[in-house]
Write a structure and sequence with these properties.
By secondary structure, the protein is of the alpha+beta class. Helix content is 26%, strand content 25%. It contains six helices and 19 strands. A six-stranded antiparallel β-sheet has the order 3-6-7-9-10-11, sandwiched between helices. A four-stranded antiparallel β-sheet has the order 8-17-16-15. Strands 12-19-14 form a three-stranded antiparallel β-sheet, covered by helices on one side. The N and C termini lie far apart (78 Å).
Length: 326
């Protein structure tokens, strides 16, 4: 018997069409999938780094007094080994470190030349260049103790402009260090106070060196250590900024939660860390904020971003709120 048989298969045109459709779908979905994977990786690394830094700093007897700082009769710094010595003689004793770099060789520790600040709406800022922030005052000019604001009210402390240093961890993070060897202890303030003297060390980290995207909120963030003894280590992650919003402190927590279920109001130490790193966050002098810290049942602490001062305020006042991640 003879008969006919049909050969089943796809034509070349059909195969090419299928491949084209697959390619288009992949081009649409892969960036999103890759981005989600990166976000999860950064979040995991960020939490692990914060845990390691917190544990290391807790093992240090005190955070002030490291290195040498001298100035001439014109109050110009003539010798400064403070931040570098803080790393070599302090942190390296309690934290595994691969490489340490002085202020003239920060890039040798894997730090990127440029950092992209967090982009927050109307306050979006341009790229921050590492070469322009090599000292404490250049990173945040409100550490300049000679500053006098528009009302003629001067700072009540003196702050030398210490040089930054950097180090690399055994886990591959690159960390820039700003250090205040004269940082104060004491947290039981009853009146308004400056937060600059409370900052002992401020760490700007890059989780993957200079590979990119070198953007705050992604691979770049910060950790701040406050108080020379009984040190508090904080690393707030900004999520939402309320622009021009009038909120009572008593309602601020619920306000943040309604904006995003994963957000909350920062306490006053976290607010200080946000102030220290305001260049990284694109904040301006108008970005004041309620904190979650309370003085008593009727009084809460309000933070002034423009000068770094904390004020007691009646909790029923409608003031500005900035929210951070839980």
């Amino acid at each position: 018997l003879t008969g006919t048989s049909k050969r089943l298969g796809f034509t070349m045109a059909e195969i090419l069409l299928s491949l084209t459709i697959i390619g288009v779908v992949a081009a649409i979905t892969l960036p999103s999938l890759t981005g989600n994977i990166n976000e999860r990786t950064w979040n995991t690394q960020r939490k692990a780094l914060y845990a390691r830094m917190s544990q290391a700093i807790a093992l240090m007897p005190a955070l002030n007094g490291y290195g040498t700082l001298t100035e001439d009769e014109n109050h110009s710094v003539t010798a400064d080994t403070a931040a570098e010595t803080f790393i070599t003689e302090g942190l390296s004793k309690v934290l595994k470190i691969n490489n340490i770099c002085d202020t003239d060789h920060l890039a040798d520790c894997g730090l990127p030349d440029k950092i992209n600040p967090l982009q927050l709406g109307h306050n979006a800022t341009s790229t921050l260049e590492l070469s322009g922030v090599k000292t404490l005052v250049s990173f945040n000019n409100m550490f300049n103790g000679s500053f006098i604001n528009g009302d003629g009210y001067s700072f009540v402390y003196s702050q030398l402009d210490t040089k930054a240093a950097a180090f690399e961890t055994v886990n591959g993070e690159s960390i820039l260090v700003y250090y205040n060897p004269y940082c104060h202890s004491g947290k039981e303030e009853t009146y308004d106070y400056w937060t600059q003297p409370k900052m002992c060390a401020n760490f700007v980290y890059d989780l993957n060196g200079n590979k990119g995207p070198n953007t705050v909120g992604k691979d770049i963030g910060f950790i701040s250590a406050l108080y020379s003894s009984d040190t508090v280590v904080v690393a707030p992650q900004m999520m939402v900024r309320a622009a021009g919003t009038s909120v009572k402190q008593k309602a601020a927590g619920e306000y943040c939660k309604n904006l995003d279920s994963e957000s909350r109001v920062p306490n006053r130490d976290e607010a200080a860390a946000i102030f220290y790193n305001k260049q990284l966050l694109g904040l301006t002098s108008s970005d004041h904020m309620w904190t979650s810290s309370v003085k008593d049942a009727n009084t809460g602490w309000y933070f002034s971003i423009d000068i770094g001062k904390v004020y007691p305020r009646t909790r029923d006042l409608g003031l500005r709120v900035i929210c951070v991640a839980r």
